[in-house]
Amino acid sequence: MKKVLYVVVGIAVIGLIAFILTNNKKKNENETEQISKTNSTVAVRIDTVKTEVPNLDYIANGTFAPSQELSFPSENSGRVIRVLVDEGDVVRKGQVLAVIKGDQLNIELSNAQAAYQNAQSDSQRYENAFKTGGVTKQQVDQAKLALVNAKARVDQAKINYGDASIKASINGIVNKRNIEPGSVVAPGTVLFDLVDVSTLKLKVNVDEQHVAGLKTGTAIKVKASVYPDKEFNGKVTFVAPKADGSLNFPVEIEVANNPNSEIKAGMYGTANFTAGAAQKVAVKTIPRVAFVGGVANNQVFVVKDGAVTLVKIVSGRIFGEEVEVLDGLNEGDIVVTSGQINLTNGSKVTPIK
């Protein structure tokens, strides 16, 4: 009797398990079907084609360079006997910076002057002798040529003797002094580095889109990174006629108002290029991220009636994260900005925020 009872209970348990499994299977199939229906569309982010006036203002960073910079060399050899300036001193053009011992140069000048006086006497003597027929015309000409050469040697000796006093050839500041009294120098030895920062040049690179509106003399507002609250006046003095390897054009901006040499050569600066009123025209734009495979491909997905169409367009200028649309889209069209990798032409989509 107990065996029969155990058999009946076992059959009942097996039947209950089978019933539960069957119900679970049906429930899973229903859920799968619902998920399948839900996932038949692709979730994407969208944006609208709009007409707006783009921001054409442009900022370019660069470094300030001195208007004049000179590594001042020696023109003669000798021993430095005096140095009259130090690093940081302001000097004027023609000011004596150092003196090189000129004893040898003085001797050379004296010898050249003596030779010149002797040549003068010879020339005069030959002139007188020629009048009485004592010498030939050729001898007179040779004496005159010797006089000219002697005069040239005197002039050269005077220049060399004058070069013993090293004089500044530009206005500026002594940035570096390479000699001390007692130093022995040779021709070409760099004695001082002079820089003129009363006027500075900010050197920046400008892309082709913005360089078209620049010309020499254009007024530009300039800032130095160390003085963020100060604004300096500048003007364009040079626009390169040829782009560099990165397709940018070197531009130089002269900054004249540098009181007390506040801006130092080598500091970072920023030039603010402002678009003129004629350039501020409303254009159609879309986000840069809307393009499939990059702006150069000129393809975007357009959403209409819950599905997408891959459209070929003509793009124009790039304004930061916005791109000008010249043809292929109308204002108000909806374009996909995220999720394009999961789309094909005709895919159903669900816009998300």
TrEMBL record:
An annotated GO cellular component: efflux pump complex
YknX-like C-terminal permuted SH3-like domain segment(s): 284-350
Segments traversing the membrane: 6-22
Pfam families tied to this protein: Beta-barrel_RND_2, BSH_CzcB, YknX_C
Superkingdom of origin: Bacteria
Residues of the CusB-like beta-barrel domain: 202-275
Molecular function GO terms recorded: efflux transmembrane transporter activity
Coiled coil: 102-160
UniProt keyword list: Coiled coil, Membrane, Transmembrane, Transmembrane helix
CzcB-like barrel-sandwich hybrid domain mapped to chain residues: 77-196
Family according to the record: Belongs to the membrane fusion protein (MFP) (TC 8.A.1) family.
Name this polypeptide is given: RND transporter
Species name: Flavobacterium rivuli WB 3.3-2 = DSM 21788
Lineage: Bacteria, Pseudomonadati, Bacteroidota, Flavobacteriia, Flavobacteriales
